[in-house]
Amino acid sequence: MKYIIAVIQPDRLDLVLDLLEKREIHLVTVTSVMGRGRQKGIAGVYRGHKEVGSLLKKVKLEIAVNEEFVKPTIDAITEGARTGAIGDGKIFILDLKEVLRVRTGETGSVAIG
């Protein structure tokens, strides 16, 4: 079992979710977050003077999958999020030690679904 965390551009979210759905990956948690990487924020003009913002709006996806869904998940996120520009995002893949479905008490790969 793996826990996949992806941080992507907000405007790419719908495409990524559609591609995940096509690969039968349905269980996704999405959070609006702010962060920065090599972009180092953006500059904007507010009331006539330049202000530099150090954090950019991003979207974080969290997905728990069984081993056979790791590659399709990564492929869907990469395909949907990639524009070729700095700031497309990152994907982190972590080992998932245990999962428990609260409603039924099922554990392990069965609990992921």
Describe what this molecule looks like in 3D.
By secondary structure, this protein is of the alpha+beta class. It has one domain: Alpha-Beta Plaits (2-Layer Sandwich), CATH 3.30.70.120. The chain is 23% helix and 36% strand. The protein contains 3 helices and 6 strands; from the N terminus they run E-H-E-E-E-E-H-E-H. The protein has a 4-stranded antiparallel β-sheet, covered by helices on one side. A two-stranded antiparallel ribbon has the order 3-4. A hairpin with a 2-residue loop joins strand 3 and strand 4 (49-53). Helix 1 (13-22) runs antiparallel to helix 2 (70-81). The longest helix has 12 residues, at 70-81. It is elongated, with a radius of gyration of 17 Å. The N and C termini lie close together (11 Å). The model has no long low-confidence stretch (mean pLDDT 90).
Query: Reading side by side through the largest sheet, how are the strands ordered?
Result: 2-5-1-6
CATH structural class: Alpha Beta
* Unreliable stretches covering 5 or more consecutive residues: none
Residue share in β-strands: 35-45%
Report Rg: 17 Å
Strand count = 6
CATH architecture: 2-Layer Sandwich
Annotation field: number of helices? 3
Number of domains: 1
